[in-house]
Hints:
Strand content: 15-25%
CATH topology of the largest domain: pyruvate-formate lyase- activating enzyme
Shape: globular
Number of helices: 14
Distance between the termini: 35 Å
CATH class of the largest domain: Alpha Beta
Structural class: alpha/beta
CATH superfamily of the largest domain: pyruvate-formate lyase- activating enzyme
Strand order of the largest sheet: 2-1-3-4
Helix content: 25-40%
Number of strands: 12
Number of domains: 3
Amino acid sequence: MKHSPAFRAGLKKGDILISVNGHEINDVLDYMFYCAEDRLVLVYEREGERLEQVVIKSEFDDLGLEFQSFLMDNKRTCSNKCIFCFIDQMPKGMRETLYFKDDDARLSFLQGNYVTLTNLTDKDIQRIIDMRLNINVSVHTTNPELRCKMMHNRFAGEKLRYLKMIADSGLMMNCQIVCCPEINDGAELQRTLDDLEALMPSIQSVAVVPVGVTKFREGLYPLRPFTKNEAEAVIDIIEAKQKQCLEKWETRMAYPADEFYLLAERDLPPTEFYEDYPQYENGVGLLRSLQDEVDQALEDAPESVSPRRITLATGTAAEAFHKHLAGQIMKKYPMLDIRVVGIVNRFFGETITVAGLVTAGDLIDQLRGRELGEELLIPRVMLKADEPIFLDDLSVSDVERELDIKVTAVRNDGFEYLDAILGITY
C-alpha cells in the first residue's frame, strides 16, 4: 500500500513474507498478531533471494501489506458430514460458492463464523489462547457419542474438551445448537445447556435454532421439522435454563431462535429478554428488534403521507408477523394499502419457511398476475450479501421485468422498513 510503513521500507508487489520478529507467518492471524509491535524485523523473499528489513512504525498501526488472498492461505473446509447440513440438501446446478463448507476458526474471529472444532489440533487451540481470540462454536450437543453421530465424525466427541481449554483460558465463546427433533432436543438439549452453563462465565451466549429440512434429502439421514408441541417443549427447556442462569450469572445465556416462537405460535418475548441481542445474526430477536424499531419510527413519522398501494413479500413463517406490522402502520395511515404475501418455498420445499431462502422464481410464479400496487418490498436477506442476486441466480431486475414492478430490498431495520413502506427516500 502506497506511503505505508512497508512501502517506505522498500517492500514490493510479489514479495513473499516469511517471518516477523522471528515468528513464522502462515496466515492472516499470524500477520495481525505479530505485526502489532512498533519495531519489526521482516524476513521476506524476492525472486528467490531471502532479504531482511527493519520497519519502525507506531504500535498497532497497519504495516501496509496486502496479500493474494484474504486469509493468506486456503480456507479450511469442513471435515464433517452432519446429518442436518443444509448444503447437503440443496439441489444440483446452483452457483459453486453455495456448496463450499467452511469450518475455519480464523473466520470465526474475523467474520463471526461458527466452527465445530473438529479440524483443530491442540496447537491450533493454543494459538487461539495465546492470541486471545474469542471464538464462535457450533456445539449441537455435549454428548460425545451423539456428537459423533450427528456430525458423522469419529473425532467430534473428543474435540469437546477444547471448550473447557478455551473457557479455562478466560476467553469468551458464543455457541450455537442446531436442534433436531427426537435427536438432540428434550433430555439431550437439557444436558447440553447444563454442560455449557458449567463453563460460565466464558459462555457469552447460546443460540438454539431449528433444523431446516428441504425436499432434497434422498439418501440422507431421516429428519423432519419440529411440530408445534415440540417447539413449545424446546422453548420451555430453554426458558427454564434462562431463569437459573439469571439468578446465578445475571444473564440468560441461552436463547431460542425466533422460528421456535413462530412454530409454537407463541407471542414474541419482550425486549429485555434478548439483553444486548448477542445472537442477532443467528436469528434470535430479529422480529422483536424490528417490532420495537417500527414502534419508535411510527412515533417520529410525519402525520400524513401520500396514498399508495404496495406489496410486501416474505417467507410463510413471518407472514402473520408482517401482517401485524402492516396493520399497525395502516391504522396510523388509512390512505395506505399494504398487502403482505407469504411466499411458499417450492424451490427447496414447503418445509422451508424463512424469508432468506425464498428464490426469485418462487416470487415470480406466485406474484404474477396479482394486483401488486406500485412497489414490491422484499427482505434484504433474500439476496446475496454483495449483489442483488437471489439463490437461484436470478436478479432483482429479472423480478422487476417479469412482474413489471419496482422491487426494493429492505434490511431488518424498523426505520428503513417504515420509510420503504411510506415511500420516503433520502
